[in-house]
Amino acid sequence: MLLPAGALPRAVAVLSFSVLLSSRGAAQRRPAPSNLSASCWSRPHPVNMFNSYHVKFQHSKALTSPYPGSHIERSQVPEDKVGWLTEWEDYNPVEYTAKSVLAGPSWADPQINHEGFSPKFNERDGEVERKSLNGLYVVENGRPRNPVGRTGLTGRGLLGRWGPNHAADPVVTRWKRDGSGNKVAHPVSGKNILQFVAIKRRDCGEWLAFPEFQEEALNSLEKSPEEKAKLEKQLQKLFSQDHFVVYRGYVDDPRNTDNAWMETEAVNYHDETGETMDNLPLEAGDDAGVVKWVDISEKLELYASHSYFIKLVTEKRGAHWSEDPGSEYHE
Asked: Which residues form the signal peptide (predicted)?
């Protein structure tokens, strides 16, 4: 779901869930989940960057072809040519913006040369946040430039905004408990085991830590208005509990282009007693094949950077991560 950056963490995540109760075509939200299936793609060309939280990030899925939802092939970008500081006079990226974006929905910008369109990049532009969570970005020939580097494709692809497209992603956790309600400690590390809500995408079989909670984890699209209202009330109770920002910055996403890219603020919402989530039965919906509580440990195999974000949560909560004491909370 697309939201203005810079909002308070609680407000960002509360909106990210409650807005999902409205129609799928609402403005300021993620592209349809069918486009998110591209998270299953390979990551062949790692290029390092750091966000404001000093998290090492890789620019790789943004180099894959074909582009999601199309037959468009990106121009190939060698690993040593990704960075903009490397001169490449022969760089000839493919221009592509999806018809669904060009149709002019409320969540999308017009084309750069459209009459009357004068975006204010690197600042708040009316109701649109065009600041990047990673700082200032270059604007060249009227177009913003991807801060990580070349992608082999210009235009916006499936993304609505020129420049950063902001999202808010929740990580929902609780303590693992036994039949008597006591916290369960790991037999080796002695630390309590943390669990999080994970979904397994039906289209690719990959586990994700950031579900679109209402639609994918609670199947809200199939609920009655009364059931949706009850869900929203319970979620608001969850969001009022302890939380912290796990990550803020650039997202290596297969929809990214040279001129449009995804950024996120991932927030951990923790149900300390477990009582709130006990009243929210998990039910796979939308594109989710399986949704369940998963024990957190270093053995997890999650999509892309999700494992690292989950590790940060265990560090903050003082929970179990590794059976090797020497590797606890260290790279």
From this structure: 1-27
